[in-house]
Amino acid sequence: MNKLRLFFASRKSWTLPYLIFSVVFVVIPLLLIVVYAFTDEAGNLTLANFSKFFAHPEAVNTFVYSIGIAILTTVGCILLGYPAAWILSRSSSGYSKTLIMLFILPMWVNILVRTLATVALFDFARLPLGEGALIFGMIYNFIPFMIYPIYDTLQKMDKSYIEAAQDLGASSAQVFWKVVLPLSMPGIISGVMMVFMPTISTFAIAELLTMNNIKLFGTTIQENINNSLWNYGAALSLIMLFLIAATSVFNTDGNDNSKRGGEPW
């Protein structure tokens, strides 16, 4: 009894709920995906699920197309989000915090509700639903995830670097390209991760904004799972996880390089 009391009195016991949650909702599902991906319906080890994917050009094309949509969405979020984050970081503290809150507020609304609102907007404007609506909806839904990490990085940036560059005669463009942009790369990389990963796996946005005329890789996984093709669906999920893991490695390397080469001179 005393040992049990000492255990719950220690700070290590506070991590127990998180450990249980991680095991039940993260570790076990991932293990099940791996098991199903490398087995057939009879439970025998096989690589047939992966060979089936590479043998079907439609599935491969959907995968490549989904990567393209994710890249376009990420680039669009960078082009629109970076200027917004830059303006917010240079605004007065109270004003910038209010605007940041306005950017974050839509994130409190369910993503399906926001997507349905986008569908209604296109219908009101008599614009056709399709690839353009899909990219617009993706950028609209995920741009706050790009703005905030860039804004946070710009806010914490040491302004003495900018002042030093200006004292040395650097123009505004040179200050931005040689000082501000390199030092804000950790925020950009974090934003890319937060936009690219959910975009590559989404399916509801594509179904609503294209009237099921455009299929993304997440939709392919969903269809296989719904049709009880658990093994093939798990293999597709594992392929997507490999891609996400690769981008995570890129994110880690990018942050390390930024820390090593973060000094502008």
Which descriptors apply to this entry?
single chain, mainly alpha, disordered C terminus, MetI-like fold, 265 residues
Shape: globular
**Beta content:** under 5%
Reported by name, the CATH topology is MetI-like fold
What is the CATH class designation? Answer: Mainly Alpha
Contiguous helical run count: 13
- Helix and strand composition category: mainly alpha
Main β sheet profile: none
Radius of gyration: 23 Å
Taken in chain order, the helices and strands follow as HHHHHHHHHHHHH
Portion in helices: over 70%
Number of β-strand runs: 0
Q: What are the segments in which pLDDT stays under 50 over at least 5 consecutive residues?
A: 261-265
| Rounded mean pLDDT score | 85
What is the end-to-end distance?
61 Å
CATH superfamily caption: MetI-like
| CATH architecture field | Orthogonal Bundle
Tally of distinct domains: 1
